[in-house]
From TrEMBL:
Residues 37-386 form the Aminotransferase class I/classII large domain. This is Aminotransferase. One of its GO terms (biological process) is amino acid metabolic process. Transmembrane segments: none annotated.
Amino acid sequence: MPSVISELSGMINQKLTEVPPSAIRAFDNEISSVPGIIKLTLGEPDFAVPDHVKMAAVKSIAEDDSHYSQSAGKIELREAIAAYLKRTRNVDYDPASEIVVAVGATEALAACTFALLNPGDKVLVPTPVFPLYFPLISLTGAEVVMINTAPEGFVLTPERLKKVLEEEGSSVKAILLNYPSNPTGRSYSAKLLDELAEILKEHHLLVLADEIYSELTYDAEHSSLATRLPGQTLLISGLSKSHAMTGYRLGYVAGPSQLIGAVTKMHAFMVTCINDSAQAAAVEALNHGDNDPVVFREAYRHRRDYMVGRMRKMGFEMAVPEGAFYVFAKIPKEFGTDDFAFALRLAKEGRLGIIPGSVFGSGGEGYVRISYAASDEKIEEAMNRLEEFVSHI
């Protein structure tokens, strides 16, 4: 095995050394060696990709659809995305210049941040939130401004947004909102989005709206800031959660052409283009798969209700998730507030893997995230193990 020469041993991007690796993956890896453990750690749908979507990918391969596409994505896919967003958000996007297809929402976010942020820019990020956002912003030289939303029930209120903008000043250039939220499952009502939009419009902020869980809302229709602020919003989404297509790595960004042009340029430098069979599958999913997420959503709703009911009886406190597929629960007070210690002990002694809330930023301390993107049988056994663990401590 080669060993790097001494002269190159420190040759690492210094900004990269300042950010830790994925805390979710690191904790998941740490507990994976526990014999017989059940892991409800990752946001990975347990459903199979719908058959008609899979067959579109197979057909693409069989027909030798295996060449470079345009960097922004095949035009038929961008047309399908535009039609879908018109149906669901009532926003008109030009497929030719206002949509770019990415390698999942992750690469979409990376292309947006590296294309549009500059050193010294401040980006507001309501927390707790998916921790990937922090390094993506920091690596550009911009500054993350965490807004701890725990006191407001894990949603950003207009009053809080106004206060933060007054405190941080004109260097605030953007806000990154994820709704429905990973990890809390909270979302934003149409009324609340209207109020936030007025403030964001007044301050001319770029809105990075991560709506990857938009098809998985349980109690109200999903609303979007892109509908209210189309001229300053980049809508980021994909098919990983809605159609269980995590391995296809198919995401997209939609927004004003002046911004999408820069995002597409950065995206092309990163990956050139998306693979053809994934794009063919996405066209099928968007054009003929509107009912696919409905089946998944009803299964998740049942699992959510079951898990919330069981955990509340054990002494956990939580808001009922309005979307996504996570429960974000406060540890019972007799266990203290060290969520890492609780989750590690639960893994080793209770053989159940969950994620400590602290990895999701300020406001996550003393909480844990549990995914219900798993079979009913696995969730039932997981709740039995959790109940046994907390009842014997």
